[in-house]
Structures are given as C-alpha cells and as structure tokens.
Design a protein that fits this description.
Strand content: 25-35%
Oligomer: single chain
Number of helices: 17
Structural class: alpha/beta
Distance between the termini: 41 Å
Length: about 850
C-alpha cells in the first residue's frame, strides 16, 4: 500500500552501543530530597510493568506516572512505531525526520512521567483500516520478534495493552499492537521461538497481560464495573507535590507535533483492566507477584538494608546512609547474572551519588568532530558531602592516555582536569541507528539485534569517573557533551556529533524544471575541520547537462561555508531522476548533507542525508502567475509553487484584511488552516467575496472537528472522517469535462501513478448541489469516496475543497501531482 519513502537516508549508525542509557543532552542532575526519598524506596520495589501500544501519544500517561512514581515499579512503554506517518503541527518535518522528532518528544514525556521508552522496527506508514493490512506491511513475524525481544529484555511481571484487538480500536495499527502483544505474551517464554535472541537474553513469561479498557466502551457494553480490576490513577503524591494526573498533563504536553497540550485534572480517575491472558486475578493486577527482594535468592538481607536506609534517611544529611547503601552494594556484587540485581545496582549507584551530592560532567571543546580528529575534554567532579571519597581515574572513550588521578574528593571543591581523545579513522557518523540503511514501507532495516528496541543512539563518547568509597569501587558515568552559555537561556548543552569532514547541503530536495531553460542549482559546502580542500563534483541523469562538472574548493576555517552554483539543463521531453553531489577529501569521497532538528522542548537532533535532489522536467502549461498562500501547519507547498515559476505571497490575517485580494489569480489555504487559525472565521467573508469577484480559492483538507467556522465555502458542505489510504487506488473521473481535468493541462489516469502513503483524507461526505465532485476513489471493499475534490463556480470565480494529500505528493516530487494542482489554481482563468 504505502509507497517507498522518497527521501531514504542511506548513511551510517552511531558508534557501537554502550550499555549505559542516556536520554537527554545534559548531565544527569543530583536528585533533590523528595526525589531521593522516592529513589531509596524504589530500591526495595522489585517489580515491573510493560505498556504496549502503536504510536507516540497512544500511551496512558496518568497510568505510567502512577506505576513509575507512585508504585515505584520499573515501568516501560513499547511504542511499536515512532509516529513517522503523521502530520506535524509545529514544523515541516515529515516521514523519517518526523519519526526522529517524535522519538525525542516521547523521551521528554518519559523524563516527566518516569517510565522507560522502547520501540520496534515498525514504521508508521499512515492511517490503516485493518490489522491485516498493518501486519502485511509491517512484516508480522519481524515485528512480533521485536515485541518478544523487548519482553525478554525488559522482563515485565505484567503487560498492559492500550487496545483490545478489535475494530473498535479505530486504527489498524492499534488493533495490530494488541494482537502482537498477546501473541508475544504466549511465546516469549518458549525457547524455541526466535531462538537467535537467546545469545543475549533468556526466555521470559509475564504473569498476565491485561487490556487497559476505555470507560466509554465498557459503558456502551454495559459491563459491570464492580467486577473489574481497577486502579485510581488520580492520587496525590505529597513528596512530589503533584497528582499523577497533573504529571500526566505535563508528560502528554510533550507531544507538541500533534497539538496535544493538556490541562491538569484533579481528583479520582479510575482505570479498568480486563484480562487477555495469563494467571487470573480478582483483586489487583499485581496479584500473586512478589515484588520484594525475597524473589531473589540471597536478596532478603539486601531488602532489610534498604529498609534501614529508608528509615534512617535524613534529607538534611543524606550522606549518613551511604555506609548502609555500600553494604548493600557489597552483597549485591556477590550475586551474579541476575537481571534485577544488575538493574538495582545502577539505581543504587545513582542514589549514592545523590546522597553525596556528587555532580559530574565532561564537556568537549566543540560539538562537532570528524573521524581521525582530536578533541579536548574537560571533566569535572565535586563531592558536596562529608563522606570521604577518592577519585582514582577517569576513563573517557578514545582517550590518548590513561587518566590516573588518585585525589581525595572533599571540602566541596570542584576537581577538573583536561584530556584529549582521538576519534578513530573508521568511526561512523552520528546518525539515528534506525536510519542507517534504506528501508521499505513497513519496517526499518537494523542488523544488530542489541540495537532493536532502543529509543535512541548511545552517546559517541562517555566519561566514567572511578571513585573509591572505602573498599568499594563506584563508577559514575556521563556522556561527553558540548556546553555553552546563551545570553537569554543561560547554560545550554548539546550532544557531541561525529560528522563528515565536509558536508554538501541542498536547500531543496525536489527541483522542478517547468520548461527547457537552463537554471542554476546551488550546493553549500560546510567544513567540519580547518583547511578543507578538494573538488566538488555533480552527476546528473542521462539527457541532462551540468556545467561545470566539477569546481575546486578551499575552506579555511572550521564551520566555513561556501555556495557553489552549477548550471543544469534539462532534456526537451519529460524526465526525472536525481542530481548527486560529491566532494573528495583526503582521498575519500563524501556525499552527505545535514539536517538539524531544533525545537526548545527537545535536545538538538542531527540527521544526515545523501547529497542529492530529485530533478523533474515537466511538460506543463501555466496560465496564471500570482498566488496568495495562507500557511497551514507544517506546510511545504509554497516553495514548490515557486519552483514552478509562480510568484507566491504568504498572506497573514492582517494581509487578508488590508490587501486588495484581486491582485492574486488564486489563493490557497494550507492544511488544517480552519482548525488552527483562530481568526480565520473573521477573514472568511472576504475570501468568499474574493471568489465571487473572480478569484480562485483552493482549500486543502481540514479535520471535521474543532473547525473555527463551518462556513468554509460559498455553499454548505460537511467534512467527514472519510479517507482513502491505498495510494494506488484507482481514480475515477466523475466530471470528465471539468476544468480541473482539462485546463490548462490535460489530466489522465497516469497522473495518479506513484503517489505515496495515501490518496487523501477528511473528504467531504455531504455537499450542496452547487458543488460538483470531480474525481472519486476508494479503498478495497469500500464504497466510492466522491468528496475528495469539490468544485463550484461561484459568481465570477471558483471555489475548490480538496482532501487529496497534495501536502505529501508535491514536496515528495510525485510528477503527476503538479499538473492537477496547477489546473486547480488556474480554474478562474477558464472562464475569462
């Protein structure tokens, strides 16, 4: 169903996985007294829960917060996808880039609600109407193996699903997530299933799997709620000063690309649970599960020591319990090959560090480094307690020499030292690991089993501070970061990036040639080291010409940039292909560009891409010039219209009020404008007058709910949830003589070939007889959906509502989408 994504990132993965997980581009802070008290209590809770659903935003944030911060359980969320197929309300990232952005939003949400984050290799390919379709595209066995892998690695006592595994789930991805979770529950304890995993993990069978039921569904089915397992997730935590629903609102508000800012709720909030499989329970979802150290042979004494530490904890002198904690650590060291012991040792190390007020950081002299280069690192540690500690050494990835220290940490004095690390010549670039290889429609290609499930890359460089506490050796680890001070935001951090010595960046990934004229194409070289020099070369498809074929370059300073222009001449006939750019540096051919994703609510993200652009020679007629465009969220169509040779003016609400709109041959509204622009209802009468006076107004899709006005067109029509998810669905011409299909370009069925992801969404299902439905299509076994392109001649002008997804097709370089869109914005000219 879904077309292979046009912009596959054929690059490399970050350095080999380090076992320690870091999820934020900043040093881990010392816990305050309330956090420390809870962390000490958590040391004595030996139980875990894994929540499973399909997408970012499917998780129950209040339940996760309750389990992680109330019950103090190890809590995880397995989102089968990274949300790659959705829309973006805050920017232009789509596809793989949106997946990177939403991954970080989930990590920020987990930072707030206290759960851990996991993923499978499944790709969110867009809306799916059935579990069968979803599992066909996901490669069921592959994703099932991922769910089994995460279960075996996480080893949950209880598994909870967000969905029930029926059509009532509302999305094929949702239904499939429950089906996969239920099947994985059955087989994860069977050593004959996915036995290749057993080199790294052991079989594991959870006690039970439950559905976190939706109350409206239960009420509709008239289920007796008194007989169900239930949890009040609205409780108040006095140590945190918040209820779990308040925490949930903060966590859910991290889903900013989806516009999920949430308000706090207060008071009781009952969640209900229905059994799916496993050992029955009548009183608690944790019934029959020992969540104490008694479940581990030799663990009872450890539990008693943690109880003692909890009782003796004094927030004014937390270091006084360090001897008790070290004693527990000593006993834990004697228990080998136990998953819970290994996990609790990491938690215990963090507790000891916070009891001593130890702050650590390792800061690089720059944020970008290339293979073979050296980088200076300043490492710092301070002991802000009276407990005696000795720093013996600091191990930093790729350090040039061993950093033996042997210094006492005392008197609240910061100890810092400088060192140098040399990045290996064969070090791989910093690239999200799931984008290392080209991928298909439904799943990512990941070779390393140990990477599957991870939320993000491990940091390329890690500093490990080896500290002696009496006879015990402690290791405190932190990623090597880059730190700077912003005059407004204050102290800022970002991850260290391993990047090519030279990057070749293109502003546009699709370049259109609406005629046979030669045009200049610009490539910007950016140097990641001083004195970079060589040749920049381009390659074009057969029939295309590039002049010159190569240009010498010399970039004196690190981060210098220079733009180079090549004259590209298309063939006479329609043609499409790719223009590629290469730079030769130190005998190596480099052909990567860089995209930076930078939003205030997530750490800065870097993604590399092949230095190429799709080039398309179009045989297209153009009869209008001036286009007004009212931007919707995540809108990339204006640059495409400019590529086609139109003069595009971005219109604000004030412009609509004050400008003479008759200067525009057509006005286009971006997707979801009527959902997101709070003032559009005031401007709408003028837009309708513009149509009556001879203009063309093209309105792209809007959701049927949260509309700012219902009077979008000159005549009434109703937007529905109708969509066509099969991008290969046959398109039928309902009104063959309509100008949209004939003027100024003749449209044929071939113009609907090679579309990506879907045909369209939020089609109209009811409309006034003044509208003419122009084309129709439908998914298999469904009735025709005629409301995807409604056309009416109103006064002297034309109004069009279209749910077809031009916002995906035009930026992706789908050649057939351009003449249709050109015809729509040319409609009024047909009558003049």
């Amino acid at each position: 169903m879904r077309k292979l994504r046009r912009f596959l990132f054929q690059i490399f993965i970050l350095l080999f996985v380090i076992n320690i997980q870091f999820t934020n581009a900043q040093p881990k802070p010392v816990m305050n007294s309330s956090q420390l008290k809870l962390a000490i209590e958590k040391l004595n809770v030996v139980g875990s829960v894994l929540y499973i659903a399909a997408h970012p935003d499917d998780e129950n944030n209040a339940l996760l917060a309750y389990l992680a911060k109330g019950k103090l359980l190890r809590t995880g969320y397995l989102s089968l996808t990274r949300g790659d197929g959705g829309q973006n309300l805050i920017g232009i990232e789509q596809g793989d880039l949106l997946g990177v952005l939403r991954t970080q939003e989930l990590l920020q949400a987990r930072k707030i609600d206290g759960a851990e984050q996991y993923f499978s290799r499944a790709i969110d390919f867009g809306f799916s109407k059935s579990a069968k379709e979803t599992l066909d595209f996901w490669n069921k066995d592959k994703i099932l193996s991922d769910v089994v892998w995460v279960i075996r690695k996480f080893r949950p006592d209880v598994i909870i699903t967000r969905f029930q595994g029926t059509k009532a789930d509302g999305h094929g991805n949702h239904t499939a997530s429950e089906m996969l979770a239920a099947e994985a529950f059955k087989i994860s304890g069977d050593s004959s299933k996915f036995s290749e995993q057993l080199k790294y993990v052991k079989p594991w069978k959870a006690k039970r799997i439950l559905w976190n039921a939706w109350l409206p569904i239960l009420e509709k089915r008239k289920v007796d709620l008194s007989k169900l397992l239930k949890i009040d997730v609205g409780g108040y935590n006095p140590l945190l000063g918040e209820s779990y629903t308040e925490i949930a609102a903060q966590s859910r508000s991290m889903h900013k690309t989806q516009g999920f800012g949430s308000a706090s709720s207060f008071g009781k909030l009952t969640n209900y649970f229905l059994p799916i499989d496993g050992v029955p329970a009548s009183k608690s979802i944790f019934e029959g599960i020992d969540m104490t150290w008694n479940r581990i042979q030799g663990g009872a004494k450890i539990g008693r020591l943690f109880e003692e530490a909890d009782k003796k904890f004094n927030p004014n002198n937390p270091d006084k319990i360090i001897p008790i904690l070290l004693n527990a650590l000593k006993i834990m060291d004697r228990i080998k090959n136990n998953n819970w012991v290994n996990l609790k040792k990491k938690e215990l190390t963090d507790v000891i560090r916070s009891c001593a007020g130890i702050y650590i950081e390792a800061n690089a002299s720059d944020y970008t480094i290339s293979p073979g280069d050296k980088i200076k690192i300043t490492s710092s540690i301070i002991n802000r307690s009276s407990f005696p500690l000795k720093l013996t050494k600091v191990d930093i990835s790729y350090q040039e020499k061993e950093n033996i220290i042997n210094t006492e940490l005392k008197d609240d004095k910061l100890f810092s030292f400088n060192s140098t690390s040399k990045i290996p010549d064969d070090a791989e670039y910093s690239q999200p690991y799931w984008l290392r290889k080209p991928h298909g429609i439904g799943d990512y290609e990941i070779d390393d089993q140990k990477l599957i499930g991870k939320a993000e890359n491990s940091p390329p460089l890690v500093a490990k501070f080896i500290v002696n506490a009496g006879k015990q050796e402690l290791t405190f680890s932190t990623p090597v970061l880059y730190k700077w001070t912003d005059p407004v935001k204050g102290e800022q951090y970002r991850s260290l990036i391993i990047a090519p010595k030279v990057e070749i960046n293109l502003q546009d990934k699709v370049l259109l040639f609406p005629n046979s004229k030669t045009r200049e194409i610009s490539f910007t070289l950016k140097s990641n080291e001083a004195n970079a020099n060589g040749l920049l070369k381009v390659h074009v498809p057969n029939g295309w010409k590039a002049e010159p074929m190569q240009i010498p370059y010399f970039l004196t300073n690190k981060y210098d940039e220079e733009t180079f222009n090549f004259r590209i001449t298309p063939p006479e006939n329609s043609s499409e292909g790719y223009i590629n750019a290469f730079a030769k540096v130190d005998g190596k051919v480099l052909s990567l560009g860089e995209t930076t994703i930078n939003y205030s609510h997530i750490p800065i993200q870097t993604v590399f891409y092949n230095s190429e652009a799709k080039i398309i020679k179009l045989d297209i007629k153009k009869v209008v010039n001036n286009i007004g465009y009212i931007m919707g969220p995540g809108d990339e169509i204006p640059p495409i219209l400019r590529e086609l040779g139109y003069n595009v003016t971005i219109l604000t609400d004030k412009d609509i009020e004050t400008l003479n709109l008759s200067q525009f041959d057509a006005i286009v509204t971006g997707i979801r404008l009527y959902n997101t622009d709070k003032d559009i209802s005031f401007e709408q009468p003028k837009l309708i007058d513009y149509v009556h006076n001879g203009g063309t107004l093209v309105v792209q899709y809007n959701k049927f709910f949260d509309l700012r006005t219902n009077n979008i067109g000159p005549y009434p029509f109703h937007i529905s949830n109708d969509r066509v998810t099969d991008e290969t669905a046959k398109v039928t011409f309902l009104d063959k003589n309509n100008p949209v299909l004939n003027f100024p370009n003749k449209i044929t069925e071939s113009d609907f070939n090679n579309w990506i992801q879907e045909r369209g969404l939020y089609f109209a299902d009811k409309w006034d007889t003044s509208y003419v439905p122009v084309i129709s299509c439908h998914d298999p076994d469904e009735s025709p959906k005629d409301g995807g392109l409604l056309y009416t001649h109103y006064g002297k002008g034309v109004f069009i509502y279209t749910g077809y997804d031009w916002f995906r097709e035009l930026p992706a370089g789908v050649a057939g989408s351009y003449p249709i869109f050109v015809n729509m914005i040319s409609s009024s000219k047909y009558y003049k």
